[in-house]
Amino acid sequence: MRIYQTNEIRNIVLLGGARAGKTTLAEAMLFHGGVISRRGTVEDKNTTSDYREIELERQNSIYSTVLYAEYGGVKINMIDCPGFDDFIGEIVGALRVVDAGVMVVNAQSGIEVGTEIQWRWAKKSDTPLLFAINQLDHDKANFDETIHQLKENFGNNVTIIQYPVNAGTGFDSVVDLMQMKVLKYPINGGKVTIEDIPASEMDKAAELQAILIENAAENDESLMEKFFETGTLSEEEIIKGLRFGIRNRGIFPVVCCAAKTDQGIVGIMDFIKNNCPAPNEMPGVKNTKDKELKCNPSEPMSAFVFKTSVEPHVGEVSFFKVYAGEITESMDVVNGANSSKERISQLLCVAGKNREKVEKVVAGDIAATIKLKNVFTQNTLNSIKNQDDVIVPTEYPEPKFRTAVRAKNSSDDEKLGSVLNEIRKTDQTFLMEQSKELKQTIISGQGEQHLNIIKWIIEKINKIEIEYISPKIPYRETITKSAEAMYRHKKQSGGAGQFGEVHMLIEPYFDGMTNQTKYPVRGTEKYDLTWGGKLIFNNCIVGGAIDARFMPAILKGIMEKMEEGPLTGSYARDIVVNVYDGKMHPVDSNEMAFKLAGRNAFREAFKNAGPRILEPIYDVEVFVPSENMGNVMTDLQGRRAVVMGMDSDGNFQKIRAKVPLAEMNKYSTSLSSITSGRASYGMKFSEYQQVPTDVQSVLLKAYEESQTEED
Ligand SMILES: Nc1nc2c(ncn2[C@@H]2O[C@H](COP(=O)(O)OP(=O)(O)OP(=O)(O)O)[C@@H](O)[C@H]2O)c(=O)[nH]1
Ligand SMILES: [Mg+2]
How many domains does the chain have? Predict the structure, then answer.
């Protein structure tokens, strides 16, 4: 393959609801881009993009696939993404490195859940978008209704460039409003013919072209002036306004196709080539030093690894976009994240499972390499000159569907841990934690489907039988008032005796409190607990009642009890302990005795100090179609949510609420059923809060029962 220069590159992502036809469109573009000589189909399980075992089995895309087409002197890099919301991470990762998105909309069903959700992500990343209305060959295709929905949801900047003359069975023609011609696409491919617009279509074509011209003019002041003066624009000016509008998300052009029957494809590719921005026409990315990288081959090289996949017989493949400079075969590069030195053994242009070697990749282009030693998704590869540069990482949605997992056969536990770690490397929206506290392996992802796919991979590919079980909640314990207690540990039956007596006052800790108590503090130690919260340990001993050498043992005893909280065995936090008196025995006192006395005094005091269980609270943001608002609110209230605010966003409402983690179990599944899958949500840990009294009683009872079971 020849080396493409920056201005000869177009980077696009294929977006759209599930089964809109993205993969089929990609296949057709690959065919016209000379990468394949025969178009595969999703049904025949032979598309270039959906090639992984699980995709073949399910006949839909699960992962993003990097592809390219060489077309009319440009290289169009395409990232075909799955449409189902659980795999949104693939889209977020792709949006980061492209310069435009093609939102594929199924003309039979119009706007779908995925269209709405992905629109929001594209808006967030400021990515230009065009709409490809697909499946126009279908007898239920309804172009006008689809346009109506697009405008209603995304505004009047949605601008028709092409419309079908004869949508439905027998579809073969579109009117192109840029050329003011009919483009005739033979069914199942073949040479496109260009014809004059028939008289019967002329009024409609002229009316729609007038809208196109006005929308194009709106994006530039000089064009606007010209438009007001003359009422029209030249072809050149329309293109100028259109290109400018696309870049600034001031215009969302609409083009037409039937991907399965190979119709409209070259029209879309021409449009991308002529009107979508080249990478150097878009704002550069920033590195963590807030410097914007220039998309220019003569700059020092910086490339961002946006995807890692594991391929059979090849191993890890790292996909990257070169943001500045150029990268060549055999080049020595440095990973800005960990200073690891790497040699680029091979540069590959990838189209699904097809890989072609190239010698050089210039700024703006997307490519892949293999056999890197210590490079992960989100890392930056640099030339030696600028080796410390780190490109600002992509912000992925937080995992929100949580479960515990275990191997059916416990001898597989260790292997399971390393498999989960490997999966994490290729999936930024998946998390795993081997929780010592809960004694569970907790995994979280975007939804039930996402975790079902993970299960499939572990069972089918890694051959480990697993099961998902209810995840425990990491509760905490604390106190709400002060209490005193003393404990005497005394053992004098035979042999060496043990004696230690400790008196303590414990108090609730809160940020900003002064360290003054009833007893004068003579020494203080402040601990940030690894499980969150604080322990303040005050030595208030006077007159040598307890030797200083025993204080660490007392602290150790307290810490031990804090690790297995007195109420339910959860970690305790935010407590001030004042040890103010005690007794020693000249012979029998030792560290063990004081540790036990400290531990037990703490336990006694804790019980009398208004102990409370704390639970993790999450900030939850739900995007709901306005008509489902009532039901979603009712459901949230049933989950003990505290609603913090509401904003409207088009036809959607955004609800912000604080919800206990314990109530979020399987939320994505019920939200989906309440809203027919149209809502989406995100969640992030916020803080620990006391559980209500009734919940506390339930938890205490459950703990007691679990203890008697263990006995
Ligand atoms: N009639 C008709 N069917 C199409 C067209 N494009 C795609 N299809 C069919 O629609 C189904 C879904 O196509 P895909 O290409 O897998 O859609 P996708 O958007 O990639 O789906 P996901 O990746 O699962 O989100 C398949 O059965 C295709 O054959 C089209 O233009 N016309
Ligand atoms: Mg697909």
Answer: 5
